[in-house]
Amino acid sequence: MSGDRFDVAVVGAGAAGMMAAAVAAQRGLRVVLIDHAARLAEKIRISGGGRCNFTNLGASPAQFLSRNPDFCRSALRAYGPGDFLDLLRAHRVSWHEKHRGQLFCDDSSESIIQVLRRECEAGGVRWRMPCAVRAVGREADGFRLDTDAGPIHAARLVLATGGMAIPQLGATDFSLRIARQFGLKIVEPRPALVPLIFDADQWRPYGALAGVSLEVRLSHEAAVIDGGGKRSRRPARAEFLEDLLFTHRGLSGPGILQLSSYWRAGDPIRIDLSPGRDMAEVLVTAKPGNRQTVAAALAQVWPRRLAEAWLGAAGAACKGARADDLANPGGSVADDLRGLGGLRLADAPDRRLRALAEHIHGWMLCPTGTAGYKKAEVMSGGVDTDELDQRSLESRRCPGLHVIGEAVDVTGWLGGYNFQWAWSSGVACGRALAAAG
Ligand code: FDA
């Protein structure tokens, strides 16, 4: 038989692939790590604004989306944030906590890449990079990979090529294609942690707000297709108190990215633009004898640009817009808001101020889509967890085939959870490979 022989071939030298390769190789297996990219681990490099938000201290199954939300439990328990911190300490990499348990490198993401590279070297992992895999086939004693560097034979194969987000960095659907080839079911992949966009006409009035950011409470009510094909409305399953960013095409910022992972076409989203403050009370209490305009009064609690532009835009956009239909089937929101910003607070009827407050606390919108894989941080969906053993990440249907990292239908919230899943699933797989010999 021609070609190199290995115990394990890992395709994808990213976060999960390097971790699995290092763990298996350090336990004595002959491992080859194959990646088509010219530069190692580009997603780690660009992550967290160049400082890599490499884990979250609060990581638990509650921050992951999956058809089986419990699937990630065992890998997270076996290798959690504390274990990764031990690894960084051993390599003298320092870090800091930024926000809600999110940990970032003090220095740069490059230090995480070097930790993983050194761990691979410590185990004697062989590299094939850049090297494309043209085809994968089953053999009596494992798998055959036809690569640019010639055929490779391996007793076990690990699919670790991640998701399809940022194709401009070389992201592909390789793991999903090969998983399908071996009969594994796939949960439909889609962009997640991604900006939401709106119909150009509907959004035009808000275009002037591009760049404005503020803390809001976001929620969405899922209107999803059930297994039986029936459309059903479920109570809001996701709510986040996070920053919102207006863009030229729609909405972004951490809050929207979080919500986008739950959002499906047709789902309305609800935004409380002044969480924790009763705007009806603020406006009505401030009203007596107040000569400032309603917009000026709003500017005391909001960024000035938002106060000036949103009120006018909301009045205009409500007219006949789907948002208006959702918020107010009677269509009176537009009438209540039109011209209100320029009125003196003292002259504004209480009824219109209360309607404004209601709109501020429950701004309903219907995005037309997401900004797609080019702007997404991750792919949600992927290889169905029903197909995999949660301790080894090995296929039940195709023994010897493992799938790890983002290619699996386990998607973390924004905030370091996706890397934690990459580390945890990589270690679980690496240990299982070693145990299997
Ligand atoms: P990963 O993408 O890391 O690695 C896959 C590897 O497979 C790559 O090296 C790729 O070249 C290779 N590959 C792909 N197709 C191939 C093929 N056909 N043949 C051979 N090789 C192939 N998460 C987080 O927790 N904190 C953060 O701060 C960020 N920040 C962030 C910013 C941006 C801009 C993005 C796009 C993503 C993030 N993420 C993140 C998400 C995080 O980067 C992601 O979830 C993990 O890198 C997934 O790890 P994997 O190992 O599964 O794939």
Give the end-to-end Cα distance, rounded to a whole number of Å. 22 Å
DSSP helix fraction: 25-40%
% residues in beta strands: 15-25%
How much is the average pLDDT? 91
Low-confidence stretches: 225-236, 318-331
So, CATH architecture of the largest domain?
3-Layer(bba) Sandwich
Number of discrete helical segments: 15
What hetero molecules are in the model? Answer: dihydroflavine-adenine dinucleotide
Structural class: alpha+beta
What is the third-level CATH name, the topology of the largest domain? FAD/NAD(P)-binding domain
**Count of the domains:** 2
Can you describe this structure in just a few lines?
By secondary structure, the protein is α+β, with helices and mostly antiparallel strands. The protein is built from 15 helices and 23 strands.
Description:
With about 425 residues, the chain is α+β, with helices and mostly antiparallel strands. It has two domains: about 5-190 and about 380-435, FAD/NAD(P)-binding domain (3-Layer(bba) Sandwich); about 195-370, Beta Barrel (Elongation Factor Tu (Ef-tu), domain 3). Helices cover about 30% and strands about 25% of the residues. The protein is built from 15 helices and 23 strands. The strands form six sheets. Strands 1, 2, 7, 8, 9, 10 and 22 form a seven-stranded mixed sheet that branches. A seven-stranded antiparallel sheet has the order 19-18-13-16-17-12-20. The protein has a three-stranded antiparallel sheet with strand order 3-6-5. The longest helix is centred in the C-terminal third of the chain and has 20 residues, at about 415-435. It is elongated, with a radius of gyration of 25 Å. The model is unreliable at about 225-235 and about 320-330 (pLDDT under 50).
